[in-house]
Design brief:
43% helix, single chain, globular, alpha/beta
C-alpha cells in the first residue's frame, strides 16, 4: 500500500496565479513524484475560487472541500479570539463543523502524514493528533513580517492580504488603514508570535522557506524542529526570450491586495520613477484594488496591466524588473521567477533576503531611491549588461531553486 499524505490547505493550489498557490501545487507534485505519497487535500477555497475539484492535477488523488464558514461564526470566533489572546486569523478559519468534517476525512483517508498549511490552519492539528504525523508548513514567520510592517512608514497596516477582496470597501478601509488598522496589526503581531511558538512545539516538524527564519525559530524552541524548504521556480515555464524587447520598458509583479506589494509599488511610483530622466514605460502586472489604481495611475510612465493570463510572456518583453520590497519575510517568488526568466532584478536587501545571489553579477541590491533610480537608468541604457546579468541570474536560479532541487529539502523531515 502506498504512503498517504493529507494536505490541509488555505486555498486550492490552482490556478497557479499567486506565489502561494504555485508553491502548494508543486509541493503536492513533489511529495507524490519524489516521495511516493498518495496526496489528498482538505482545502479551504479562497473567496475567488470555484468550490470544485474540476481542475485537479493528476498527482492529487482526492479533494475534500472544507465547509464555508458563515459570517456569524467568524464574528463569534473573532470575539472569542479577542478575549483569549489567540490570533484573529485563526478565528476566521476555524469552525466546529470543519473540525468534525476533518475528523471524518482523516478516518476515511488514514493518512501517514497530515501537512497543515500556514499558521491560520494550525488549530486543526489537534484533530489529527494521535492519528498521523503532524507537520506544520508556516511558510514564513508572520510575527516578524508584521513587526517590519509596523516599522514601515506611510503604508497600509492591513493584515487581510488576499482576504481583503472578500471585504466591503468600508470594512477594508476601516480595518486595514489608519489608527484602527495599526492597533489591530500590533495586537495580531503579539498574538501570532505566541501562536507560532505554541504550534511549532506541538508539531512533529515545521517548514519555513528561509534558513534564517528556521534557525531563529529553532533557537526560540531550543530544539531543531524547523527545516528549510525554499520557494522553488518552474524554470521550464520562465525561460529567457531572445526575441525583441519593448524599448525602455521594465516592470513589477505583485498582487496589490497584499499590503507589502502595494507599499512597494507606492514607493517606486512616488520616490524612484520621478528621478528617471529617460523616457520609459513601467508595467505593473497583478490584481489591483481600485484604491491603489486610482491613487497611482497618473504616475508618469506607469501602466497597470491587471491580472495577466501568461506572466512569462509579459515579463519576457521587459528589460529588467524593479522590485524593492517595503517589508516582508521569506523568499520573494517574484524575484526568483524574474531571475529564471533571464531578467536582471533590481531590488533592496529585503527583496534579496535569503536568496544568496551575488550582488552586481547575478542580482542588483541597492538601498535608497537615488541609487535605485541610477541603476534603473544604467540598465535602460545597456541592453548588453541586461543580457549578461540576466544569463547569470537564470543559471543561479536553475542551480539552487529549480523545483527538482527544492524537493530534496523535504527529506529533512524524514518523509
Amino acid at each position: 500500500m502506498s504512503k498517504r499524505l493529507l494536505f490541509v490547505t488555505t486555498r486550492l493550489p490552482w490556478p497557479t496565479n499567486s506565489g502561494r498557490r504555485t508553491s502548494l501545487y508543486h509541493y503536492c507534485r513533489g511529495l507524490h513524484e519524489q516521495y511516493g505519497y498518495e496526496v489528498s487535500l482538505f482545502a479551504f477555497p479562497e473567496w475567488d475560487q470555484e468550490r470544485s475539484d474540476r481542475d485537479k492535477p493528476p498527482f492529487v488523488a482526492r479533494v475534500h472541500l472544507a465547509a464555508p464558514i458563515g459570517r456569524l461564526t467568524k464574528l463569534w470566533g473573532l470575539l472569542r479570539a479577542w478575549f483569549s489572546g489567540k490570533p484573529y486569523q485563526t478565528a476566521l478559519y476555524e469552525s466546529r463543523k470543519n473540525h468534525r468534517l476533518l475528523q471524518r476525512v482523516i478516518a476515511a483517508e488514514k493518512p501517514d502524514v497530515v501537512l497543515f498549511d500556514m499558521l491560520r490552519l494550525a488549530p486543526y492539528m489537534k484533530v489529527a493528533k494521535g492519528h498521523a504525523r503532524c507537520v506544520l508548513d508556516l511558510d514564513d514567520l508572520l510575527s516578524v513580517r508584521y513587526k517590519r510592517q509596523l516599522r514601515t512608514p506611510n503604508t497600509s497596516t492591513g493584515i487581510a492580504g488576499h482576504y481583503a477582496g472578500e471585504m466591503s470597501p468600508l470594512a477594508e478601509r476601516l480595518l486595514c488603514h489608519g489608527r484602527i488598522g495599526k492597533m489591530i496589526l500590533k495586537s495580531e503581531q503579539k498574538r501570532v508570535a505566541r501562536a507560532e511558538l505554541r504550534f511549532a512545539r506541538e508539531a512533529e516538524g515545521v517548514v519555513l522557506v528561509s534558513a534564517a527564519e528556521a534557525a531563529h525559530l529553532n533557537r526560540a524552541l531550543g530544539r531543531p524542529v524547523a527545516v528549510t524548504v525554499p520557494t522553488g521556480v518552474d524554470t521550464t515555464a520562465f525561460t529567457p526570450d531572445n526575441g525583441a524587447k519593448k524599448q525602455n520598458t521594465f516592470g513589477f509583479v505583485g498582487n496589490l491586495y497584499a499590503a507589502a506589494n502595494a507599499a512597494s509599488l507606492t514607493y517606486i511610483a512616488n520616490e524612484i520613477l520621478p528621478l528617471l530622466s529617460v523616457p520609459f514605460t513601467f508595467e505593473v502586472a497583478g490584481p489591483c484594488p481600485d484604491e491603489v489604481r486610482t491613487r497611482l495611475e497618473g504616475t508618469q510612465g506607469l501602466r497597470f496591466l491587471g491580472e495577466v493570463k501568461d506572466l512569462a510572456i509579459v515579463t519576457a518583453a521587459w528589460q529588467f524588473t524593479l522590485c524593492p520590497i517595503a517589508f516582508g519575510t521569506g523568499l520573494k517568488t517574484k524575484v526568483l521567477e524574474a531571475m529564471a526568466a533571464g531578467l536582471p532584478v533590481l531590488t533592496n536587501a529585503v527583496g534579496a533576503e535569503g536568496i544568496g545571489a551575488n550582488n552586481g553579477s547575478e542580482i542588483f541590491v541597492l538601498e535608497g531611491a537615488d541609487d535605485l533610480a541610477a541603476a534603473a537608468e544604467m540598465l535602460l541604457n545597456s541592453p548588453a549588461l541586461c543580457r549578461e546579468v540576466g544569463t547569470a541570474a537564470r543559471h543561479f536560479v536553475c542551480t539552487h531553486y529549480d523545483w527538482s532541487v527544492v524537493f530534496k529539502a523535504f527529506g529533512q523531515l524524514d518523509l
